[in-house]
Amino acid sequence: MRAVCVLGTGLIGGSVLRAAVRDGRDAWGTAASEPTAAAAVADGFDVTTDTDAALRRAAETDALVVVAVPLTALDAVLARIDEIAPDCRLTDAISVKGAVADAVIEHAPQARYVGGHPMAGTAESGWAAGDADLFTGAAWVVAADDGLDLDVWRDVAELAWACGARVVPAASDEHDLAVARISHLPHLFAAVLSAVGAGGQGDDLALSLAASSFADGTRVAGTRPELVLAMCEGNRSALLAAVDDALGRLGAMRGSLASTGGLAATVTNGYEGRQRWASTREPLALPVSLDGDDPDAVLAELRELGRRGDVVEPWKN
Amino acid sequence: MRAVCVLGTGLIGGSVLRAAVRDGRDAWGTAASEPTAAAAVADGFDVTTDTDAALRRAAETDALVVVAVPLTALDAVLARIDEIAPDCRLTDAISVKGAVADAVIEHAPQARYVGGHPMAGTAESGWAAGDADLFTGAAWVVAADDGLDLDVWRDVAELAWACGARVVPAASDEHDLAVARISHLPHLFAAVLSAVGAGGQGDDLALSLAASSFADGTRVAGTRPELVLAMCEGNRSALLAAVDDALGRLGAMRGSLASTGGLAATVTNGYEGRQRWASTREPLALPVSLDGDDPDAVLAELRELGRRGDVVEPWKN
Question: B51's torsion region: left (phi>0), alpha (psi -120 to 50) or beta?
Fold first, then answer.
């Protein structure tokens, strides 16, 4: 089994490290601070603040390096990789894929990079909040752009399965547009709904009458603002497209409400979307062979599978 | 205890009738169809399709008449009231207050009307879905506009308490603006979010990645469209104001995202709104005396209490 070097052992990286160790792999990690490293060591894990040493060991063992630092710390980490383990097997666990791929091309161009996005999280953060079961049943997007190394693709998929996740292949740009629609826009809608509810006539009547429709619609507005900002601002151009789609629909709705008073198109489209989502809840797990003469044809097949809402079936060894 | 005549024995009216009977009151109702009346009679309740007979009995006993028919059926019911029990004690359980008050002035001008809005519901509808406990812990808005009859106000509040609800006094127009913000707008936001999630690049990738933020943000988009339309379209002008508030905030957000990429104002305002809502969850129950030389001063005091997010404390008999 492929060894795993996890750079950054917060909630996500710490959970990947725990799951990799549980899977019986040789796995180690790095922490940004001594207290975090000490806490992880006390829990029985091999975690250091010495990123260079961790990367040397990755180069020696041909390990899969998993970048799980915040987007703002990415460039510095990639520079160390380019210095110490330039052609390593590389993936990441950051919530945008286009920006990370661009940064890899700029700062660690020789790395064999295949992006990843394990789609799980909690309101908590940090090493202590990590859990080997965090990704159980969650989607783990694995980038499937033309030109990627299928051998590393296999490593990333196998790590995702070891973490209990289902593997969803997607082009990086399509991933970014998709998460803008179903994760980042919901956070912004929740924030605006919350502000409208609280901002009314300057009193608490509206909030005192708010019940389940408001509670559900604004739940994620209670997330720590810095987490929401890092996620949404990091996906700026895709998010702008999703916001413009929403504004177009809201503008048409506003026009209809003002002119005829009718809301049927808005409400019916929303109802149908929700029904369609409910029907995608059980993805098909389909077998895919990564072997073949034309790697880009395999990657194209993977992307098509993801677009249909399906997942890759774990292969038998 | 005041007798109660409930016009319309669907989910809301049927629940009010059950709670009134459980409270030991003389209570009867009307149904729009024979099968509904038969079902209610089979359950041991005094329900007829003869609205005129029910209203004659209300006039004879000085009962509180509760209109619980859909907004579209309101005018016809008010016309019967004006014919048979013109100066009856009258309230309603419809989700908008301004439009109902206007209809009463037009079609039953002598009625002693005090509007009500019990804020509870389920996805179900009809007599069979009714429950004497439907309103337990729910807000029950009682209109507190100048000029209302405080003796009927007392009747409505006492009925709300008999149903287990908390009494929130509000001006009719302020109620309509408030529910537009915290109930009707959340339904429209959920519909748009659902359509954006489903409408992406014409494939199922986005929906297959959707998790809790999307699930919560679109939950009420799964409500039957006709119920959402009746509710939202019936509150057109107040809803338009809420939509415009939301569009203004979204437009500012879009401008900031496009120009600087920053979303801090949006996300922070949303977080603060959600925190403020959480802090309004436990209303104070305050004593109010309905006796006094100046009824409008009492009504003004009631409105102020509701604006602060508080409720009226049940009086001791």
Answer: alpha
